[in-house]
Amino acid sequence: MLERITVGRGACGLCGVAGTVFYLEAEDDRGRDVTVPVCERCGYAVGKGSAVLLALRTGRAKAAKPTKKPRKRATGQPGAIAPYVGPSKHDVSSLVPADKDLVSSGQPGAMS
Ligand SMILES: [Zn+2]
After folding, report:
1. Which pTM does this prediction carry?
2. How many angstroms is it from 41 CA to the middle of ligand 1?
3. How far, CA to CA in Å, does 75 sit from each of 71, 72, 78, 79, 83?
4. Which of 77, 53, 73, 80 is nearest to 64 (CA)?
5. What percent of the chain has pLDDT over 90?
């Protein structure tokens, strides 16, 4: 249980960055003194963690983070099954090269 917070200079006990820190001084359940130096950034992170715990305890997990509006479903099918509009299939030539030498060589692009 946290008893008090003091401010000083030192290395953060969570991320190791040296600078201005505050000390979480507490006494554990066995009566031992526990002091954890915490930098500003880690302190904010700890606060956010506390907010998550509070939200979980009160059953309002969604209140901990901003909710995004759900995307509206498209009202109509956007032509996923649109009819074929290209040229007639009989007017398009084959994609297989007509040159039989290139096909039989087994090595695409190999020209001898
Ligand atoms: Zn830190």
Report:
1. 0.47
2. 6
3. 12, 8, 9, 12, 19
4. 53
5. 35
Q: How far is the CA of 2 from the centre of ligand 1 (A)?
A: 18
| Helices within the chain (DSSP H only) | 40-58, 100-105
CA distance 59 to 53: 10
Q: Give the Å distance between the CA of 100 and the centre of ligand 1.
A: 70
**Cα(43) to centroid(ligand 1), Å:** 7
| Domain range summary for the chain, segments of one domain joined by + | 2-64
| Cα-to-centroid distance, 5 and ligand 1 (Å) | 15
Residue with the larger pLDDT of the pair 20 and 80: 20
Taking only the tens place, the pLDDT of each residue in 33-84 is: 888 899 999 999 999 999 999 999 998 755 555 556 777 766 665 656 777 7
